[in-house]
Amino acid sequence: MTTVTGSCHCGAVGFEMAFGGPIETSRCSCSICRKARFWKTVVPADAFTLLCGENALRSYRFGSGSIDHRFCAGCGVKLFGTVQLEGTAFVAVSALPRPRPRDSGRPDHAP
Ligand SMILES: [Zn+2]
Known about the structure:
The structure is a single chain. By secondary structure, the chain is mainly beta. It has a single domain (2-95), classed as Beta Complex (Metal Binding Protein, Guanine Nucleotide Exchange Factor, Chain A), CATH 2.170.150. The chain is 5% helix and 42% strand. The protein has a six-stranded antiparallel beta sheet. The longest helix is centred in the first third of the chain and has 6 residues, at 31-36. 24% of the residues are buried.
């Protein structure tokens, strides 16, 4: 098992994520993630740990409200979220340290 840490741009929010193999990623195509160009990886919810910044985090839900999109109120970076029914957490690849995992999802044709 490998653990990586990630953070938002201003550094208020930090987290760690554990994974057992190559990090699979994809570009989410839901309505909010298309607008935010969100590139994610998905892990079991218990593999994700918030290290700091709970007070800086804000939540955004829409539709059925079953998905909790979390972002930093200080810098606005969308970092992660949870899908309660699936017991998973999705994490922004952009919040992980470099080198970042390769994009194994569909190609992004936007400029
Ligand atoms: Zn921040």
